Amino acid sequence: MKDFMMIFIGPDYGDLGLSPEEIQGRMGKWFAWSQKMEKDGVVIKGGNALTSGIRRIVGENRTVSDINSAEVKELVGGYYIVEAKDFDEVQEIAQGFPDYDLGGTVEIREVMVFDN
Amino acid sequence: MQTKLIDHLFRHHSGKMVAVLTRIFGLSNLELIEDAIQDTFIKASLSWRNQIPENPEAWLTRAAKNRVIDIFRKLQTEQKYTPNFSNGLSSIAIQDLFLEDEIEDAQLRMIFTACHPKLDPKDRIAFALKTVSGFSGKEIASALLLKPETIKKRLVRARKVIQKSNLAFSIPQGLALPKRIESVLEVLYLIFNEGFHSNTKEQLVRKEFCGEAMRLCKLLLKNKHTSIGAAYALFALMCFHSSRLDAKVTTDNEVLDLKNQDRSKWHFPLIQLGNVMMNKAVELDDFSCYHYEAAIIAEHLKAAHFEDTNWKQILYWYQCLYELQPTPSHVLTMAVVCLQLKNYVKASFYFDKIHPEALEQRSYLYYSAKSDYYYATGNMNKAIEAMNLALEKVTNQLEQEYLKRKKEKLII
Lengths: 116, 412
What we know:
The structure holds 2 protein chains of 2 kinds. By secondary structure, chain A is of the alpha+beta class. Chain A has a single domain (about 1-110), classed as Alpha-Beta Plaits (2-Layer Sandwich). In chain A, about 30% of the residues lie in helices and about 35% in strands. Chain A contains 3 helices and 6 strands, in the order βααββββαβ. The two termini of chain A are about 20 Å apart. Chain B is mostly helical. Helices cover about 65% and strands about 0% of the residues of chain B. In chain B, α9 packs antiparallel against α10 (about 230-240) and α11 (about 270-285) packs antiparallel against α12. The radius of gyration of chain B is 24 Å and the shape is elongated. Classes of the chains: A alpha+beta, B mainly alpha. The interface of A and B includes residues 17 and 31 of A.
């Protein structure tokens, strides 16, 4: 088994101007996904949701800028780390990600293991 | 562990918290408050992804309370507001404002604010649906068949008027009260009707609007100053109409008229509740068009079969209603009732009094009824002609299909 990271990229809920009803609906879908993963025995080793504020430090001069989420097209909103055999298995898990219809993306990356 | 949330929890909670926070910070900070509440929902949606808390409502209320502190800080740094408890808030701890009774009181204040005479009547509905009921501009627009920009404009205009006029966040007292209750009832009635006669193509009946109007009307009935006869009558009317919500549409989403509805599908407990409310309504001194409208629908509900309907009594109630409220749509209904009574002379008399343009988007109802009239009096050509006009005017897809079926029967 290997560790994979599912990185969730897409617009911020706040910037989409969703109604309370729609936010509740979104949450229900996330909840259903996590229940499905639990049922399917997916081992989630970690995960977090990220707030929308961004501070970026760039280049030699360490130029600092605070960026509003609305200014970024592709915002990383959160991630899960799951155990799986290979990319295909994670791809299957990622089918349940709820926000594809909002233009969301799931990026799957394998966590690198170093031999001692 | 919770596995599912109460339906519309977020939407209902939004109305409650916006009202409470407005009571604390005043109407001048409404926009800030609405944004803050929106933030708490987004936060909830992220932190509840894997597990819904034991008591979601308490979680949301706590989050709103925390927002109070944030808002205080924000306003203080912007120097827009220094806590000023001279307005009587000092006697009640802010904590207490989050108790159920106080939340209801705050919501009532919000309804009365939404119906302030300074606001344009069109803006009142949009503002109430947004601020009191927690619908988004987009949702309101699609339910009212308007462009989202139109609703946005109305909301902006309403907020501006509230700011500029420095409205008090209160329920008016004394002489101003009856007039304002009238305006509140009118808005609730319109919201209910938007739900009941929903014009949206995809979803014929927006039950949510009906439920929302009833919930808000109930708030009026709970308060001793606002529970007047007209409010009871309106609530009775809503109960009676709601009892038929499920019978109004077939499983294939076809509209059914009263004649073809399966009366066993009428929801009896709601009819009973309506009767109780009606009894209260007539005990009180004031009298309103809602009394008559409720009496009319009660008359329909009394009949076990369509053939048993007491049309004479219904015509009488409509005549009373028309006295109070002389609108062309009542005249049209009286014409239709006369068709049921086979009194074609009187029906024709009423038809002649109507200018179809005055019925605006409902003019198709006039032509459809006129077609029935011609059919009943044996003038087939004119019946088909009128039905064609009805089909030309109708906008709702389901109503259109209903009229088409009617026309097919005429041709055979």
